[in-house]
Here is the input.
Amino acid sequence: MVRWLPGENPVGDLFNEFPELNVRQVARAMGINESLMQQYVNGAKRPTAERRIEIESFLHKLAERLSKIKL
Here is the structure.
């Protein structure tokens, strides 16, 4: 599990680490304002601890769904 230090931008770091994740599409799927999510990514705004947990949970659920794909 990754722990983030105060002052870092974990949401921005995440989207930079995984550029295949589309910020706008993730925001839409979560029901978060796209502009607000972009501000989280850019570091203009900091999400609350609760919001970070929501984002993390959504991405874990997405990963679980992806892991079940059979082609």
Remarks:
- Residues 49-67 form the longest helix (19 residues).
- DSSP finds four helices and no strands in the chain.
- The mean pLDDT is 91.
